[in-house]
Write a structure and sequence with these properties.
This protein is α+β, with helices and mostly antiparallel strands. Helix content is 26%, strand content 34%. Helix 2 packs antiparallel against helix 3. The longest helix is centred in the C-terminal third of the chain and has 18 residues.
Length: 264
């Protein structure tokens, strides 16, 4: 396929772990919780040679072996810091070629806690890494996600919409501008506690438009995170209004704010 630019990836989605992970629950208590690991690996070269030979070679990654290594490396009482370190280490080891070069150019490790969200479908922390050609980090950052929060609020421009609250489905993610302190109990409790304070902001609001609500709540969140020593580089918010239009799933407003608080 001469002339093509390759962007080939190997993915492993929602790997179940043999041991729970210690993290804050919905009440802010550090408890053992079920967690899922997902991996997305950007390959240094395309899968063309693997495909043409119909056999695994040094341009791809054996995802079955990778899954076994991660599950085998898990330990009882492990924390988020240890789990991310385990996943990164196993990826780099399995991606090393015989000549010591690396098969991968970037890694995305997602740890999902399906029971850690009071309003949504789960809490996720994502570690995104770019790699050099020798299997070491070049750059990295973390993203915090809260999936599909269901929040009741007073929203709408029509008179009948001012009579009662209606549901919004909220998707929130932000990139902390400093290295997350994943081994710090207080930091983790503050990070996991973002959901409830954020949901309360929306519940107590009474805007007419999604645009006004989105702009206001992102500013409020940025200020609150900064006050908790979790300044953010990027905040992305999407608001779905499923009861607004009878013949559509929902209208949405999505905004992204680059806050310029980078600290690394």
């Amino acid at each position: 396929m001469d002339g093509f630019t390759y962007d080939d990836r190997i993915q492993l989605i929602n790997l179940q772990l043999p041991h729970d992970v210690i993290a804050p629950n919905i009440w802010g208590e550090l408890k053992a919780q079920p967690a899922l690991v997902s991996l997305k690996l950007g390959l240094m070269q395309g899968i063309e040679s693997t495909a043409s030979n119909d056999a695994l070679d040094q341009n791809t990654v054996h995802y079955g072996e990778l899954a076994k290594r991660i599950r085998g490396g898990c330990t009882a009482g492990q924390g988020l810091d240890a789990l991310f370190a385990l996943c990164e280490r196993q990826v780099f080891q399995i991606a090393r070629r015989e000549d010591a070069s690396s098969r991968i150019r970037d890694i995305e490790i997602t740890v999902t806690f399906p029971k850690a969200s009071l309003y949504g479908e789960g809490v996720e922390l994502v570690h995104s890494i770019t790699c050099d050609g020798q299997g070491a980090r070049k750059t990295h950052f973390y993203t915090w996600r809260i999936k599909e929060m269901k929040v009741m609020t007073l929203i709408g421009v029509n008179a009948y919409e001012r009579r009662a609250k209606q549901p919004l489905v909220v998707h929130l993610q932000f990139v902390p501008s400093a290295e997350p302190k994943l081994a710090d109990r207080t930091y983790l409790q503050q990070l996991f506690g973002v959901e409830q304070s954020f949901a309360q902001l929306i519940e107590d609001s009474s805007f007419e438009t999604l645009e006004s609500l989105a702009e206001w709540v992102v500013k409020q969140l940025a200020d609150r995170l900064s006050a908790q020593n979790i300044p953010c580089e990027v905040i992305r918010l999407k608001l779905d209004k499923p009861r607004a239009i009878a013949f559509a799933d929902h209208p949405s407003v999505e905004i992204t704010r680059m806050l310029g608080n980078r600290q690394r």
